[in-house]
Structure formats: structure tokens, C-alpha cells
């Protein structure tokens, strides 16, 4: 029989994993649906998805190790080799890149002496290029264990990693009061609350600027039946009839209704002009 060459979990570590895995599995109608949280769970123990972790997930969920590996290798949040205490992800997606994300990544890489998905020799920092974090309103953005560091520069980014490596408590620019370790964050992602979800504000003024403007102007989004939404109408100072975009009008994503063909009525279901059907 083939062997993995790795010692299996044992003792209190195994007991802890089995207890927590049972909690995660109980949240889903099918055991296999708990694979993603279980991968985070083993990552919270080992600092990465280890061969032991893959074997544990497979045995717990009735899957093959190939099936577990296929999922673990698909998502970049699952690490296939030991990760640092802090994953520092610099967004180099389009907007952040042109706002300075590329420069931040290059200077951090040189400062730390590591490249993408590499870890500093002290085991503290794993550097990554990351894709858009839906925080473009604060570009360029850097993430540390998925906490936001907004409006960064090469200098502020280097200061953050220096303080992390020195063991200082480091606060993100919004959200939790401080950054936790990669293992602690992995446990939260596995579905085990650390009680800090409500620390700080998740959205800042730039995040809600569009919503504030819409309320000031009395703009509302059309519903599927073309009427204004109750929430938007309640917060609007303008009469609903005047503020609700009409099909084909400004702010409406609904096609202009089909005009009846000359000498008859249109039954074109898509609402496109009858001439387009010819
Ligand atoms: S492009 Fe960086 S957060 Fe969206």
C-alpha cells in the first residue's frame, strides 16, 4: 500500500481537529460540502494545507485525496507550503497597479528579499501579488491576513512589514483593531468566530459615496416590475414617480419597449424594436 511518508495527526491535535471538523460538517446537509472550511481548519493547525491535512479532510469527508487536492490547488487562499505568520498581499490589479500597487510590490519585494508566494527567512512574512479586493475606492490597497491597509505607498507598506516582523501590534486602516496571525485568521475562515467581526468600520466614506449621492439626488434603482423600491422611496426626498427611471430613459437598464408595428400590435417578448426582428 502506498504511503504518504508523513506522520498522521495524533494525540490532542487529532482530537481537536476531529471535534472542530464535526462542528463544521454538522453545518451542511452533505459532509463533502464542508471541504472548504475543513481546508481552512487544517491550515489553522499546520500553517498550510499539509499532506496530513489533505489526508484528514479526505478521511473525514469520504473523499479521495485527489479530490481534496483538486480543490486545495484551485483556490489561492489555500497554501501548499508553509506560510509565514502574515500574508502580505499587494493588489496589483489594474486600478491599484496604476495608482502605485506595482511600485509597492516591487519595493516590498526588494525590501523583504522575497518574491511572489515566498516567505522571509524568519518565517514572518509571505509576500503575494493579489487580485482586486473590492477595495478600489482606497487604491492602492495592501492586505495583511485579509485585513485592509488602504491608500498605501511604498514607505507605509515597508513600515507595516517592519513592525510586523518586530512583533509590534499592527492595526489595519479599517476593520479589526489589530492584525491576527495567519493561523488565527484561518480558523476564523473555517467558521470559528474569534468574536472580533464587529471591530471597527468595514466601509469608509469613499465606499458609500455613491449611496450618499443617490440619496441626496433621490435616485432609486428600478425593480423588476418597474416600480421604485420601498427602501429607496422612503429615503428619497423626490416623489417616486419623478425619481424612478422609466424603461428606455436615463439611468434605466431596461430596453425601450417595442413600438407596435404599423397596422398591428407587437407581441415581441423581448421588447426590442420590431424592425430588429426582420
Ligand atoms: S484593483 Fe485593487 S482593490 Fe480593486
Structure overview:
It contains 10 helices and 5 strands. It has about 280 residues and is of the alpha+beta class. Among the domains are: about 10-70, Arc Repressor Mutant, subunit A, CATH 1.10.10; about 85-180, Glutaredoxin; about 210-245, no CATH class. A 5-stranded mixed beta sheet has the order 2-3-1-4-5. The longest helix has 19 residues, at about 95-110. The N and C termini lie far apart (about 70 Å). The structure holds FE2/S2 (inorganic) cluster (FES). FE2/S2 (inorganic) cluster binds near residues 93, 95, 96 and 139.
Major sheet attributes: 5 strands, mixed
Give the N-to-C terminal Cα separation.
68 Å
By secondary-structure content and strand pairing, the structural class works out as: alpha+beta
* Largest sheet strand order: 2-3-1-4-5
Please count the helical segments. 10
Q: Could you tell me the radius of gyration in angstroms? A: 26 Å
Short summary of the structure?
With 278 residues, the chain is an alpha+beta fold. The chain is 38% helix and 7% strand. It binds FE2/S2 (inorganic) cluster.
Descriptive terms for the model:
alpha+beta; 278 residues; globular; 38% helix; disordered C terminus; disordered N terminus; binds FE2/S2 (inorganic) cluster; 10 helices; 5 strands; Arc Repressor Mutant, subunit A
Amino acid at each position: 500500500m502506498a504511503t504518504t511518508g508523513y506522520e498522521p495527526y495524533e494525540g490532542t491535535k487529532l482530537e481537536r481537529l476531529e471535534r472542530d471538523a464535526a462542528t463544521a460538517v454538522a453545518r451542511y446537509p452533505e459532509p463533502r460540502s464542508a471541504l472548504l472550511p475543513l481546508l481552512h481548519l487544517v491550515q489553522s493547525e499546520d500553517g498550510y494545507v499539509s499532506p496530513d491535512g489533505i489526508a484528514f479532510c479526505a478521511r473525514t469527508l469520504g473523499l479521495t485525496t485527489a479530490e481534496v487536492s483538486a480543490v486545495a490547488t484551485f483556490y489561492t487562499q489555500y497554501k501548499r507550503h508553509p506560510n509565514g505568520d502574515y500574508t502580505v498581499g499587494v493588489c496589483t490589479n489594474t486600478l491599484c497597479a496604476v495608482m502605485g500597487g506595482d511600485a509597492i510590490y516591487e519595493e516590498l519585494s526588494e525590501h523583504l528579499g522575497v518574491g511572489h508566494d515566498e516567505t522571509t527567512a524568519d518565517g514572518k512574512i509571505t509576500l503575494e501579488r493579489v487580485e482586486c479586493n473590492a477595495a478600489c475606492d482606497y487604491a492602492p490597497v495592501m492586505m495583511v491576513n485579509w485585513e485592509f491597509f488602504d491608500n498605501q505607498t511604498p514607505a507605509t507598506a515597508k513600515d507595516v512589514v517592519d513592525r510586523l516582523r518586530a512583533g509590534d501590534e499592527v492595526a489595519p486602516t479599517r476593520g479589526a483593531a489589530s492584525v491576527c496571525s495567519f493561523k488565527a485568521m484561518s480558523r476564523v475562515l473555517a467558521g470559528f468566530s474569534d468574536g472580533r467581526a464587529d471591530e471597527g468600520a468595514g466601509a469608509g466614506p469613499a465606499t458609500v459615496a455613491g449611496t450618499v449621492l443617490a440619496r441626496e439626488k433621490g435616485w432609486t434603482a428600478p425593480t423588476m416590475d418597474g416600480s421604485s423600491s420601498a427602501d429607496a422611496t422612503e429615503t428619497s426626498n423626490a416623489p417616486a414617480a419623478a425619481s424612478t427611471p422609466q424603461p428606455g430613459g436615463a439611468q434605466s437598464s431596461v430596453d425601450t419597449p417595442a413600438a407596435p408595428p404599423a397596422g398591428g400590435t407587437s407581441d415581441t417578448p423581448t421588447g426590442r424594436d420590431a424592425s430588429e426582428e426582420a
